């Protein structure tokens, strides 16, 4: 759904009307259309159009439009030793203050896995994940994917992708649950 701003200005003295329609789409494109009709003298009132643009800008800046964080795979099943990639898509990844991967094993606390700040190409890993050779986090246009290689039973958990906006508003994906199967996990 787009954020829209419609303004209609009428001036009886100038016998004119002026309308501005501004749409902001989360997919990354905007549309502005204006229409003015004046009989006689032309109206130069663009203050309302500027106000509309400023409203949309601050809504975007403050995170009011919300970011759509999509984790398409809600359940992923893997055999011991497999390599699994958990994708995370965000429509405005370049505008993120940070993006994080968070792990939650069943019945346990959340654990920070990795973060990407200011759209860097290299992710920063936390705590026990810092020296792991089995984990990789990679950014691409519109995505921040977590890859787990040589999966183990301890990798079974729900993984959340979180988009941190400016001013620390956070949008979470629905989570991807990784279920590792094999002789040791039964």
Summarize the structure.
The chain has 186 residues and is mainly beta. Helices cover 8% and strands 45% of the residues.
CATH fold-level label of the largest domain:
Immunoglobulin-like
The number of E-state strands comes to 15
Q: What radius of gyration results from the CA coordinates?
A: 24 Å
Q: What gap, in angstroms, lies between the N and C termini?
A: 45 Å
What series of H and E elements makes up the topology?
A: EEEHEEEEEEEEEEEE
Description:
With 186 residues, the protein is mainly beta. The protein folds into two domains: 59 residues, no CATH class; 117 residues, Immunoglobulin-like (Sandwich), CATH 2.60.40. The strands form four sheets. Strands 5, 8, 9, 10, 13, 14 and 15 form a seven-stranded mixed β-sheet that branches. It has a three-stranded antiparallel β-sheet with strand order 1-2-3, with helices on one face. A three-stranded antiparallel β-sheet has the order 6-12-11, with no helix packed on it. Strand 9 and strand 10 form a beta hairpin.
Keywords summarizing the entry:
8% helix, Ig_sub2, Ig-like_dom_sf, disulfide bond, signal, Immunoglobulin-like, Ig-like domain-containing protein
């Amino acid at each position: 759904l787009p954020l829209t701003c419609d303004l209609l200005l009428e001036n009886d003295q100038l016998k004119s009307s002026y309308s501005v329609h501004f749409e902001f789409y989360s997919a990354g494109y905007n549309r502005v259309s204006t229409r003015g009709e004046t009989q006689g003298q032309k109206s130069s009132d663009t203050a309302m159009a500027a106000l509309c643009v400023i409203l949309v800008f601050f809504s975007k800046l403050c995170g009011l439009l919300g970011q759509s964080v999509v984790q398409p795979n809600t359940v992923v099943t893997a055999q011991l030793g497999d390599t699994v990639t958990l994708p995370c898509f965000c429509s405005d990844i370049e505008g993120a203050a940070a993006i994080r991967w968070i792990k939650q094993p069943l019945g346990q606390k959340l654990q920070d896995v990795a973060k990407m700040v200011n759209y860097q190409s290299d992710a920063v890993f936390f705590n026990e994940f810092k020296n792991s050779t089995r984990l990789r986090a990679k950014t691409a246009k519109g995505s921040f994917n977590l890859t787990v290689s040589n999966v183990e039973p301890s990798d079974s958990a729900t993984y959340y992708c979180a988009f941190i906006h400016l001013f620390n508003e956070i949008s979470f994906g629905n989570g991807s649950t990784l279920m590792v199967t094999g002789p040791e996990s039964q």
